[in-house]
Give the backbone structure.
Amino acid sequence: MAIEGPLRELGIHDVFQLLDLSRKTGALRVTSGLRDNEGTVYFDAGQVVYAAVRSNPHPLGAMLIRSGRITEGELTRARLRQAEERDGRRLGQLLVDDGFISARELDRQLRLQIEAVVFELLSWREGFFSFVEQNVAEMPAEATVRISAESLLMEAARRMDEWGAIADQVPSLDAIPALATTEGESAAGDTPLDLRLEEWEVLAAVDGVRDLRAIATVLGRSEFDVAKCAAELVRARVLEMRTPYQLDGTGDAAAYSQAERAAVLLADGDFEQALAEARLGIAADPACVPAHLAAARALDRMGRVQESVEELRRAALSSSDNTEVQRALGYAAARAGQLAEAIMNWRLYLHAATDSRQRDEVREALRSATELHEMLEAYAWN
């Protein structure tokens, strides 16, 4: 039996409770368009036995190194043995067999690995879920521990209380951390920073552009852990949190709030309502780029491609140097068959953008569009 639906109608906590109470065995998949992410949790008679999330996999080896249980060299040797022997033994079992960790420690780390993924998924408020029953034999080989779903939900509730405790420092995962202003730095004095390793990692990933969600993805750590580190850095006056409309000193907070609601509705597939929310944001502040982007995406999803292009053109007029607008306008124009405009916007994007993954994607799109445009132009003259 398949169980599926949008998370805004049946929250992820309720899904876990349902699977726990009905003692279900199978795979629960959760997707989030807002996060561009997907996670999977495997249940055996209502208990969680394995979990993984695409963008933040919480690999066992990295967790063991971070916790000081093994060294890089020990992990490398175990991986080489795994590649050479190919006898089906998992990495964790090889580390136990070689005496680097105990079987008890392996079990504890596997539990922490599952908990890290589950707690991240339980924080999602938008997206879709789908549960499909399957046999235990079809589950990943790593599914060797059993954790009560009820205990995971109780711990997740405790963590939600912790979120409330850091709300003054970290208002949301959309907040963008930046180095504190001169005034804030001087208040800290000349005392050397006494930071934990994980706090140094977060600090090193701060560039004034990435929000906390993006930093968590880059570091391969949970959003919750990154938010806690960021809160500590704010308390130490090392960082300060800014919302997108604060970065350039312009914009209306209500407009950006409407844009955020539109983004959640887009992720849920409610395109009509997303467009309505985006329009309200644009009405509150015609220069609110996220609202224009949300409106354009909603229009595109509804098949109104040319209207999407026109919406992005208006966004470009409001912010001619916004790389996300340039990238989106390139794709929208290409979908509308306006290759010359697509090529121009993608070139503008590549000139200024820094995201390496998206740059690679746009570069490939630009190459293909240029070739097609040249072929069409040549054909027109023959």
Q: What stands out?
A: Confidence is low (pLDDT under 50) at residues 183-188. The first helix runs from residue 12 to 21. The CA atoms of residues 193 and 236 lie 9 Å apart. The chain is about 60% helix and 10% strand.
